[in-house]
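Async update (no meeting this week)

Hi team, since we skipped the sync, here's where things stand on the single-chain job. The sequence we agreed to prioritize is pasted below, unchanged from the tracker. I ran it this morning and attached the output directly underneath so nobody has to dig for it. Comments welcome in thread, and please keep replies under the output.
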Amino acid sequence: MEQYLEKLLSQIRCKKARLYIAEEIRGHMESQIEDNMAHGMTYEEAEKNAVADMGDPVTTGISLDKIHKPQFAWKLLIIVGILSMLGILLQQSILYQSGYHNLEPYMQEIYRLESEGFAYSVLYGFIFMCGIYFVDYTVIAKYSKIIGLFIISMGILLLAGFFGGVINGSRYSIGFGMFRISAVSLMMFYVPVYGAILYKYRDGGPAALFKAIVWLIVPVFIMFRIPSLVGAMIILISMLVQLTAAILKGWFHVPVKKTLAGLWSIFLILPAIALVGMYLFHWLAEYQEERIRAFLTGSGDGFYLTSVLRALNKGILPVGNSGNDVFGSLPEFNSDYIFAYILNSYGSIAGVLVIAVLTVLVMFIFGAAIKQKNELGMVMGFGCGMLLLLNIVANISGALGLVPPAASFLPFLSVGRSNILLCYGLVGMILSIYRYKDVYPKKIRASQIALQKKFTINM
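Output:
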């Protein structure tokens, strides 16, 4: 049997697939040996017949090689390439608008540096994406708790004032000197890692589910305290979707319907209670309280930006520049309100096309996750998809004046090195998940992940 397996596995080009194929074939053969022995054969006869029933090892191996080969998501790469080029052109176009030349010289210099830096950020993003792609998402899963604890620790140190960098009451970055990353972006990267942490509690009961919920609550609390209310809601909903998928897949031995009803009821009500409490006890920054109060009442200084956005949206043309002074009216129009810049500079059709490309991106990611045979990849993929989807919805809704103004970004189009790295990192993870969609089995045991490298080297 071992000689047969060795010859069969030599036909499999994907070394990562060999361990799982070997276990599957060995299981079939051992089962057949038991059946043969039950019919009166000796072990030697039973084994010989079981091997013969499997067919020629070379032919069988070639067939399995076609099935269990790595795939590359060319469509996803093309979509990301289109968005990357669109983002570079969009940011560069700012420097040629008439409104740009009417700005103060120091503001012109800021936008010029940000536009030039955007192209470098895209380059770094591609490198980061390739790094995650080649590392393999199962490696990230293996060390998920360590990675998760690191991200949480950085968040706690930030709240303790360890890294400094407070603007308008918000702690915005982690690191030292030039080596800094947005705290919000780092906490968002926790979401796909959370999917892998959930996988480690698979086959557990209520106690395991409780631990999974604790891993969910801590980063959300950190985001609230940064404070980034939009960011907190994005990661909360994203992780709830992952947890829901895990429960529906039977990862936890709990009543499915009652558990899901309880989870969503608690976490839909809890954020509202927390927000009211933070507002009443003045735990929010003063400008954030003013924005919430102004948006709810439709008046006051905090409502000014929302009223400006709504006024700008009324003058949008189907094609071409609306003539509205976006440069003089909106702060961060190349980041938080990039969609408003697109609508006013190029028209509503351009806005619809941008939404269409982003929609195709999100649909591909969710499609890849749903079709994923491996449950670990599925849940991590859902996390990546939810992060991109909710950031798109939050940014566009803010630009249209549908929600209170808040710091946000439009994936691949807004400036901000950390946000760009986050987007490419998420795509890199999806590319890795898609790559091994026909390689890894439905469930991967921790022992299999540990043996994978050793088995590959030995073969």
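Quick observations from my side:
The longest helix spans residues 105-135.
The longest strand covers residues 173-176.
Reply here if anything looks off.
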